[in-house]
Amino acid sequence: MEGRKAKELAAAILKIGVGRVYIDPANLAKISEAMTKDDVRALIAERIIKKRPAVEQSRGRARDMKEKRSKGRMRGKGKRSATRKVRSQQRKTWMGKVRALRRTLREVREKDPKALEENYSEVYNKIKGSYFRGKRHLTEYIEGAKK
To answer: For 77-109, how does the pLDDT look when each residue is reduced to its tens digit (9 = 90+)?
Structure first.
């Protein structure tokens, strides 16, 4: 059997492309003696015909870049392709802010129940509606409502 035909049969048996089949040049005589698919299987078992490893893309450079980015490098304005809204999820930042404000509101109510006797739900809804810039703004608003 010709070397090319043996290669094609070996590729079909190994379920790989013809380019990944390696035939040992020292044993070309044995390959020419092979007649059937079973003979090619025997040559594969004898390791005369081998499967080359798949050539994959190296991740080394990607790992280096990831390490640099974790340090804060490579994140300048020139590297950004998306808008600010897309790069930081607005929903998550809002949720973090609201949770912090609600926690603060709860603490204020536990500490001084009379401070928010009438307008607790009003302040709660203002938090929900993004009325307050932060925790300090909330506490200032509550102190102003006390007076």
So the answer is: 999 999 988 888 899 999 999 999 999 999 999
Retrieve residue 128's tokens: 């929900």
pTM of the model: 0.49
Contact 3, 23 (CB under 8 A): yes
87-146 placed in CATH 1.10.1200.60: yes
Contacts of 22 (CB under 8 A, 6+ apart): 49, 50, 51, 52
Closest CA to 142 of 133, 125, 130, 120: 120
CATH code of the domain occupying 3-51: 1.10.1650.10
